[in-house]
Amino acid sequence: MRSVLPAIAAAGALLRAVTIVGLRRARPRLARGVLAKFRRALATGPAVVYGAEDAALVRRTEAFVREEMAGQDGSHDWFHIERVRNLALKLARMEKLASADTLTVELAALLHDIKDWKYSGSESAGSEAVREFLESERCAPSVVEGVVDVVERIGYKSELGAGAEPKLTPVLAVVQDADRLDAIGAIGIARTFTYGGARNRALYDPAKKPHELGTTYEAYTKKGKNEPTVNHFYEKLLLLKDKMKTDSGRQLAKGRHEYMESYLERFYAEWDGEA
Description:
mainly alpha
């Protein structure tokens, strides 16, 4: 973190203020939205500024991730990674993580889905590939271990199978919450049906009830591969709100959870021809 942060923040504030004044005259409603976003940004603090070496590392990591994830369906593509990265950095600011952790948070968010088991079929391929990449970049051992720890433990299935769960680190907490926030709400709904469609799953089948999952690794892994997509809401997505690790994550999850509940009510009404 550099001393230029206050100057950058001040310049950004001035630019936004000028923009908002102009918008208020031309488009008052849009101006209110911009102002609300600006206030939220101020509340969570300025964006991180890295030194030259770390900034270059982030750019190379972005390029590596884009190449690795090219061709994956829209539920787990580069845009998912970008959203998780942005959410993780936001949560890190809201939770006031140490500035020294910021690089690890960003790298972990960027790399968390590399060779994910749903696509690679391997439980260990992701962490192995991430370790190899970071070591080839001559990252500090503490950063390598911090990122690999997130990759190994971020998954919902991994948490269920953890048994006596190892100590939760602040980095894992914010990246995991960010990933879970992207799995719920409007974006989560879109991702869920994208994933189901990519696997030719039915939208919904009234004859196939959701499994009672979310409590043990054994129960979760017994789920069939061709379950209707709507069942996934009950088997995982509606459970995520109460599994957030940070206060900020729980705060953001509340609205997304309520949106999913409203969506499902409407879905069933339309399915039955009542709406």
